[in-house]
Amino acid sequence: VDAPHGLTPPISGSCCVIFVHGFNESFHSVLSALGHLLRRTSHFSHCFSLIGFAWPGRSRTGVLGTRTAAKQSASKLAHAIRTLKIWGNSVVLIGHSMGAMVTLRALQECEVSELLLLAPAVPNTALCPHGEFPAHSLQAGKVTIFYSQQDGVLYHSLLLHAPRSLKGLLRRGILVQALGRTGPAGESVHACLSVDCSGHVGEAHSMHAYLKLNVFAKHLERGVVSALADLRKSRL
């Protein structure tokens, strides 16, 4: 993402919306999601530059292998965000499912205007002070979580995503819930905004189920407008 020496950056003075996909998504499915996002936001898409962040979310070792890939990819995402900001852009970040892990880890290294998480596949205590991604360590102006209490995928698979310590809790009979199924828990409740989409997406977990929501489009539009306003103020 570094611009060659002496050349004008390819994106400058814009709000960059970066979409980070989840587990087991093909390149074509990500392109489809980006197209869906552009169509859904056609009335204000001229206000931002859309970027898809592709990471190796399809591991032969399954979800656990993908978790390792997510950690490694987070540093690359953070580097991309820092570069975009050096070029004079603001950044709004969107993470779906296990892509939430990539975005949350990246925001411990860099700053964005806003983070939108769709059906995040991390524990619902992840943003608590002693969680994996404490809210106070995240460099985001605002964090919004979209979840469904009926999510059929997270109901079955969250513990495959969890650290070994959390799996130990399961063996002792302690249930770990997903952030994308319950919303934030504990002290993290007041650290972010949560939107219950159960009545709209039901058991669905797919990117498209959330991208088509009016409430998501409205939050994204507000985030883009706010990011552009902050960018203009920083230039005064």
Structure report:
With 236 residues, this protein is α/β, with parallel strands linked by helices. It is 42% helix and 14% strand. The protein is built from nine helices and six strands. It has helices at residues 27-40, 63-86, 99-106, 152-161, 164-171, 179-182, 198-201, 207-211, 214-234; strands spanning 15-20, 48-53, 90-96, 114-118, 143-147, 193-196. A six-stranded parallel sheet has the order 2-1-3-4-5-6, sandwiched between helices. Helix 2 (63-86) packs across helix 3 (99-106). The longest helix is centred in the N-terminal third of the chain and has 24 residues, at 63-86. The radius of gyration is 17 Å and the shape is globular. The protein starts with 14 loop residues before the first strand and ends with a helix. Mean pLDDT is 86; it is low at 169-173.
Question: Could you give a quick summary of the protein structure above?
Answer:
The protein is α/β, with parallel strands linked by helices. The chain is 42% helix and 14% strand.
Primary descriptors:
14% strand; single chain; six-stranded parallel β-sheet; 6 strands; alpha/beta; 236 residues; 9 helices; globular
Secondary-structure map:
Blueprint: E1 15-20, H1 27-40, E2 48-53, H2 63-86, E3 90-96, H3 99-106, E4 114-118, E5 143-147, H4 152-161, H5 164-171, H6 179-182, E6 193-196, H7 198-201, H8 207-211, H9 214-234
Parallel strand pairs: 1-2, 1-3, 3-4, 4-5, 5-6
Helix pairs in contact: 2-3
